[in-house]
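Let us practice reading a record.
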Amino acid sequence: MNKPLVGALLALAFLGAGAAPAVAVNASADPQVRVKAVDFAGTVALSNCSGSVVRMPASESDDPALVLSNGHCIESGFPAAGQVIVDQPSSRTFGLLNSAGTRVATLRASKIAYATMTDTDVSLYQLTSTYAQIQSSYGISALELNAARPVAGTAIKVVSGYWKRIYSCNIDGFAYRLKEGQWTWKDSVRYTSSCNTIGGTSGSPVIDNATGKVVAVNNTGNEDGGRCTDNNPCEVAANGTVTVRPGINYGQQTYGIVPCVGLDNKIDLGRAGCALPKP
């Protein structure tokens, strides 16, 4: 996993803490599509990871806001393989950033609405503030989850609230299964090499440049060329073939979250179309 303090400071010594990779962005094959400017607005810094204030396409302004991050970023430690957490009380705080990456507020959770590292690596915190209250107080809107599955070749940005750094690359493809230690994730997003994410970027929203919507959540990368070990995930094809891609990083798709969120932004794992793991 892209943990915050393992190797992160060493990596920054070489990369530079504030610099974003200078890469060209493939906006769209359609010249009529205007690329949305992607910045830090709506992202958050956790104590150990990155995250973002997110909404579903059907979320309403008076709904309690949600923060998206990784399952491995929750304060109680990594969930075990097969473990699913629902409605666990939490008072965790998040530093809300504006478009320039300046911290403008501290948001507080009321609970971990959902968290797991099984099939995906995701956490959703419910906040004590509504979307309307955040917008009114700080002028910041939530990022919207795209309800559609992303496609290979899509130009993306990985926006880290922890490091206040934006990585630019493309979706290189998808891993049928991504295995790391005891955990296995399904249909993971593989980035092209320009998104050389580091510790602390875990939980960053992966944003489609063209739409400005969240299509994945950043979670891991193969650091040392190891095979299917902690911090060295491997790809496992449907036929069982194992591929190791040293230095390549990954995220977990988020479109599958959308059907699992119902009225008042409540996680409802029994809703039609919801395929998230259940407790």
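A brief commentary: The longest strand covers residues 165-180.
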